[in-house]
Write a structure and sequence with these properties.
The complex is a heterodimer of chains A (114) and B (110). Chain A has 114 residues and is mainly beta. In chain A, 0% of the residues lie in helices and 51% in strands. In chain B, strands 2, 4, 5, 9, 10 and 11 form a six-stranded mixed beta sheet that branches. Classes of the chains: A mainly beta (114), B mainly beta (110). Chains A and B meet through strand 4, strand 5, strand 9 and strand 10 of A and strand 4, strand 5, strand 9 and strand 10 of B.
Chain lengths: 114, 110
């Protein structure tokens, strides 16, 4: 059982480049989300999705796009990378049918923007 | 709006107890607790649902005071393996998203 899989694990980009962070889960979870983690800031929600075809913004959505074409996949796109987007990115998923379900995290993508 | 965690950091000796608090200004639907080791993903500990329940997991337990919109995590007879950063995540009202506090860094010394 793979759980939540994120790729790549590490990435270095130059300012202005674009890239897609991949996230896939094999647990048939309806709810998926992206967080960024910066020192002293905890986990801040970027975007989330409650099912295929449905996405919504979190606390810090600017500079990021998402789509959810299947239940399994929830990619995060940086259209024009900026140094302020240097961070560790975590994808998470959750079964959403009952309110006592835990959120499962991927191992993270460490992104540096030069 | 982020829940507020306190303290920001705590240092313990092995065998000592600790309490970590998580407060929200909103009416909470549930509170999640996670522990994160350095360089790793957050790992789920437990969920508290509104109703003022208390749960336990080995020597780690938690409570949820619905009147105060506050949850507390209790670590009893701490072990070296308890070291890490503890995060509370809250779901408010009918919101589907989980919002996390800034974390409490716990260090257990031998």
């Amino acid at each position: 059982n793979a759980g939540v899989t994120q790729t790549p694990k590490f990435q270095v980009l130059k300012t202005g480049q674009s890239m897609t962070l991949q996230c896939a889960q094999d647990m048939n979870h309806e709810y998926m989300s992206w967080y960024r983690q910066d020192p002293g800031m905890g986990l801040r929600l970027i975007h989330y999705s409650v099912g295929a075809g449905i996405t919504d913004q979190g606390e810090v959505p600017n500079g990021y796009n998402v789509s959810r074409s299947t239940t399994e996949d929830f990619p995060l796109r940086l259209l024009s990378a900026a140094p302020s987007q240097t961070s560790v990115y975590f994808c998470a998923s959750r079964l959403d049918r009952a309110r006592n379900q835990p959120q499962h995290f991927g191992d993270g993508t460490r992104l540096s923007i030069l | 709006q982020q829940p507020v965690q306190s303290p920001q950091a705590v240092i313990l000796r092995e065998g000592e107890d600790a309490v970590i608090n998580c407060s929200s200004s909103k009416a909470l639907y549930s509170v999640h607790w996670y522990r994160q080791k350095h360089g790793e993903a957050p790992v789920f500990l437990m969920i508290l649902l509104k109703g003022g329940e208390q749960k336990g997991h080995d020597k780690i337990s938690a409570s949820f005071n619905e009147k105060k919109q506050q949850s507390s995590l209790y670590l009893t007879a701490s072990q070296l393996s308890y070291s890490g950063t503890y995060f509370c995540g809250t779901r408010a009202g009918s919101a589907r998203q989980l919002t996390f506090g800034s974390g409490t860094q716990l260090t257990v010394l031998p």
